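Entry 14. Two folds queued back to back today. First construct below, sequence then structure tokens.
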Amino acid sequence: MQVYTTETEQVNAIKRFFFTNGKYLAVGLVLGIGALVGWRYWLTHQTNQLHNTAAVFEGLNNSLASGSKEGVAAVEKFANETDNVYGVMADLELAKQAVAQNNLAQAEKNLLTASSKAKDENMQTLSNLRLARVQLAEDKTDAALKTLELVKGKGWQVMVEDIRGDILAKKGDIAGARAAYSTGLGLDGPQVIKNLMKIKLNNLSN
């Protein structure tokens, strides 16, 4: 490393450095600023796009409530073309509509799509919990148990054990159902669900 003993030598060294490397520094600075501006533009674009998508979803969801074929078709088109949280929510609403019409096969299809599309863990979990419920209603008890295995978050385990108990009870595994409900009652979770599990557990005992 070269040592400069006077202020003049230091200034001259700095000048030489910028004369030699100035072009590269300028390019690097431009690229850095360009990347920053591009990133901010992308974030703004994504935020605006999400707001626009939310507005479209709200309108379509209102039309879906009417139960018309046109409304369902519009939400289906939106769900197929939208690869974000609102696309997942559209699939969930379509599944809800299908359940109301007792079309469990369609509801299962919508929920499978929602689960595979969801990038957010909570949305994925919600999709899988509803899917397990629908599979239980279809008497697909083994498939429902496998779906529950996909739910990992601790905050959802009370619901998991509640559904697991229902599945095992339907399979005739009373001991397994009792164990699931008992496990759920020992976990932190919504009291309303735990109250229901107490009733189910008492009914098993009787």
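Second construct, same run, same settings:
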Amino acid sequence: MSETILENSRFYQVEGASTGVILFHAYTGSPNDFLSTGRFLQRAGIEVLCPTFKGHGTDDIYDILEAHPDQWWEQAQAALHYMQGRQYERLFVFGLSLGGIFATRLLTENHQTNLAGGVFNSPVFTAQQIDVGYFFEQYARHLYEKQNRLDEYQVEKDRIMSLYREQIESISYFAMSFYMELSQITSRFYLAQSGEDEMIDPEDAYLVRDALTGAQEVDFQWFEHNTHVITTNRERSAFEQSLLAFIQR
């Protein structure tokens, strides 16, 4: 399993690193979500693993649609197991958007004293079911356009969006299945939210914060002018600095 993780990941290695970080990417994303963040942390002497969730990082939209959150959860657990085997003094699990759901669940189930983490613009706990249909449709269209297959896309669009809605329901169900356990997180927790998040309601971040009643600390950072993919945003510098400060504290 560890070999599979590394084959489908970006790994920012640091010889003799005492701190390790796992970064889980967004829905329809890839480890490219963390090109800047991974290198930034690596320069600070932190070793970083960025796994690829099944079905992501390809030009076939059906690869994502045929995957299931339970498979992504298995991958998240495998990534944690691999990094625990590297014997860091401190280990952190973070996730962007979809990835934050899996990082958070890992923290509800693992309570080692050297483990902490958090989320960036993540729909861990939402007032209403998430729906990024507009953005998913644009993403699917882009993949077909790259391959000069727009005519096929017009034929397959309804089926693609039907499968998307089924998958979003599965993701929402997965998140709801453990939201009552958020109070069981006892580690330090980093919560970053962009004020100009165009994909999820920024106000939902307060629901997550208020549910973390057992956390040792909740470092809630609001970035007023950042958008959803905060790790690639032009205004990401303050985010990166605050994340590093949380890790190094």
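Quick look at the second one. Strands lie at 9-12, 19-24, 47-51, 90-96, 115-120, 188-194, 217-223. Residues 150-176 form the longest helix (27 residues).
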